[in-house]
């Protein structure tokens, strides 16, 4: 997958699948399942690092997790988020930070939030050879301005602004656009009017692709935690993990784990020779057994 594949998929009417991924293991699994785009999103701050918004996330955080995701990916396109205030201070700052994510992190595309105001930055990044994905609608980095995670574009003025922003980003050279939390008919209208693909999250079924935060999609929460309305849970991994860890704890406390099946043996004669001062055969056999310890650990 490349940035250009996204536009080709739209032209051929193929829907794009995108999921967030933050580490090697999730990237390997999602890549093996054929997900087209892996997003190292700044949602990392909330679902992995435990912040209450995406605002504290740094370029170094995204870089660290992007490298892990890239190591776990063979086919998918890896997109890395430019976090809050990492691309708005100056053109040079945006170029430097995007270059870090692409050159040091191994991402193929960077994503940034905003419309008209960031279009010149998008153009500069694209001009320098760095593909850019835009993100409009509810843009979580502006949460203090929005005052909450609310649906955007419901009034005529707000809807028109989103249509204009989408076109400004396309004209600036963005390779795709995330549409977050906007009414489905508005997302359909924007999608039909663009040549570049739209990827929706809480933007209805008529976008060219869909993106979800992996924790929402896999049900990786405690039973009483909030699940956004736009998310569908395809699994209940939180409950599976809770059940498994409770059982593990019970078995360790009861002494029923580990059993012989998870234990390693050694020669009786070496055990019998322990504590004897003799450095003869048994001593040498002991050293050989120690040299073989690594193999035992891997179950050989
Ligand atoms: O950071 C993120 O996960 C995102 C998605 C919600 C699109 O930007």
The gist of it:
The protein is of the alpha/beta class and 300 residues long.
Task: Report on this structure.
The chain is α/β, with parallel strands linked by helices and 300 residues long. It folds into two domains: 3-231, TIM Barrel, CATH 3.20.20.60; 241-291, no CATH class. The protein has helices at residues 3-11, 24-32, 44-47, 59-71, 91-104, 119-127, 143-146, 156-172, 184-193, 214-218, 237-254, 268-273, 281-291, 293-297; strands at residues 16-20, 37-40, 77-81, 109-111, 132-137, 176-180, 198-201, 209-212. Strand 1 (16-20), helix 2 and strand 2 form a beta-alpha-beta unit. Helix 2 (24-32) packs across helix 4 (59-71), helix 4 (59-71) packs parallel to helix 5 (91-104) and helix 6 packs parallel to helix 8. Bound molecules: 3-methyl-2-oxobutanoic acid (KIV). The site of 3-methyl-2-oxobutanoic acid has 12 residues, from strand 6.
Q: Name the average pLDDT.
A: 94
| Bulk shape | elongated
What's the domain count?
A: 2
CATH superfamily of the largest domain: Phosphoenolpyruvate-binding domains
- Radius of gyration from the alpha-carbon trace, in angstroms: 25 Å
SSE topology string: HEHEHHEHEHEHHEHEEHHHHH
Low-confidence parts, pLDDT < 50 over ≥5 residues? none
Q: Any idea what the CATH architecture of the largest domain is?
A: Alpha-Beta Barrel
Secondary-structure content class: alpha/beta
Strand order of the largest sheet: 1-2-3-4-5-6-7-8
DSSP helix count? 14
- What's the total count of β strands? 8
Strand-residue proportion: 5-15%
| CATH topology-level fold name of the largest domain | TIM Barrel
What binds here, in terms of ligands, is: 3-methyl-2-oxobutanoic acid
Percent helix range: 40-55%
């Amino acid at each position: 997958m490349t940035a250009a594949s996204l536009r080709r998929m739209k032209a051929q009417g193929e829907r794009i699948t995108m999921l967030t991924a933050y580490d090697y293991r999730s990237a390997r699994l999602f890549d093996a399942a054929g997900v087209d785009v892996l997003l190292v999103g700044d949602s990392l701050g909330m679902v992995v690092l435990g912040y209450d918004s995406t605002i504290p996330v740094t370029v170094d955080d995204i870089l660290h997790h992007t490298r892990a995701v890239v190591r776990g990916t063979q086919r998918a396109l890896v997109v890395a988020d430019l976090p809050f205030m990492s691309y708005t201070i100056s053109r040079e700052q945006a170029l430097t930070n995007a270059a870090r994510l692409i050159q040091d992190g191994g991402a193929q595309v960077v994503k940034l939030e905003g419309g008209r105001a960031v279009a010149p930055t998008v153009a500069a990044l694209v001009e320098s050879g760095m593909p850019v994905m835009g993100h409009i609608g509810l843009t979580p980095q502006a949460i203090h301005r929005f005052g909450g995670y609310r649906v955007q574009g419901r009034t005529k003025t707000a809807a028109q602004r989103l249509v204009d922003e989408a076109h400004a980003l396309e004209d600036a050279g963005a390779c795709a656009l995330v549409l977050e939390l906007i009414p489905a008919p508005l997302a359909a209208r924007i999608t039909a009017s663009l040549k570049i693909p739209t990827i929706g999250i809480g933007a209805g079924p008529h976008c060219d692709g869909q993106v979800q935060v992996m924790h929402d999609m896999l049900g990786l929460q405690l039973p009483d935690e909030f699940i956004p309305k736009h998310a569908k849970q395809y699994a209940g991994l939180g409950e599976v993990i809770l059940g498994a860890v409770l059982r593990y704890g019970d078995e360790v406390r009861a002494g029923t784990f580990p059993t012989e099946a998870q234990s390693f043996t050694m020669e009786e004669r070496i055990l019998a020779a322990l504590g004897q001062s003799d450095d003869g055969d048994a001593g040498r056999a002991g050293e050989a057994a120690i040299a073989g310890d690594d193999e035992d650990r891997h179950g050989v």
